[in-house]
Design goal:
It contains seven helices and ten strands. The chain is α+β, with helices and mostly antiparallel strands and 189 residues long. The chain has three domains: 33 residues, no CATH class; 77 residues, no CATH class; 40 residues, no CATH class. It comes from Streptococcus troglodytae.
């Protein structure tokens, strides 16, 4: 068994009480193309997409839709991370419809486009209540900002969304200023 921080290459876990199973398998070359041999040929089922791949697909689709509707900026990136994190933590699922409502709340066409583009690959909300999704949420719990002057900021989501702690100001010349407020203590690490 791999350590907690390693992903196993292949595994099959069966819940004997309800006959549910989780399968991790490598895609192998079969008849000149890559396939999930065990699931497709032996079990004769279509494997579900992993949570990690689903999150990545949702992020890429949201990015593309935001580009198409001229909404793509650092604020949208942060909004997207926060929305995915919130859905994973609070609802224990990722729903394209819910995510669309949160990301494109003021643009119905963008919302419908986002859901439409994910409809085939993610037709149902992805439930994460019965799997360990801590690795995915760990990556999403902070906003990492790299500024043009070389400064990097790591801001927890709850602080990032609090206007009393962090404020982003767009200057008249198109640049941004970041105001960090109400700091009690500063430590150098």
């Amino acid at each position: 068994m791999p350590s907690a921080s390693q992903t196993p290459d292949e595994a099959l876990i069966i819940n004997r009480q309800n006959q549910q199973y989780y399968l991790i398998e490598k895609r192998i070359k079969n008849n000149g193309s890559f396939a999930n041999y065990f699931s497709e040929n032996l079990l004769q089922v279509k494997p579900e997409q992993s949570v990690k791949k689903s999150i990545k697909m949702m992020e890429q689709t949201a990015q593309k839709v935001a580009d198409d509707f001229n909404q793509d900026d650092f604020a949208f990136q942060s909004k997207m991370k926060s929305a995915i994190y919130k859905n994973l933590e609070e609802d224990q699922e990722l729903s394209p419809e819910k995510l669309a409502d949160q990301l494109f709340d003021s643009n119905l066409t963008a919302r419908l486009t986002f859901v439409d583009e994910l409809k085939e690959t993610i037709p149902e909300p992805i439930k994460v209540s019965d799997i360990d999704h801590s690795r995915q949420t760990k990556k999403l719990e902070n906003q990492k900002l790299s500024l043009s002057n070389g400064i990097e900021l790591l801001v927890p989501n709850h602080v990032y969304q609090d206007a009393e702690s962090v404020e982003f100001i767009q200057n008249q010349n198109g640049t941004y200023s970041i105001l960090i407020k109400n700091i009690e203590d500063i430590q150098s690490k």
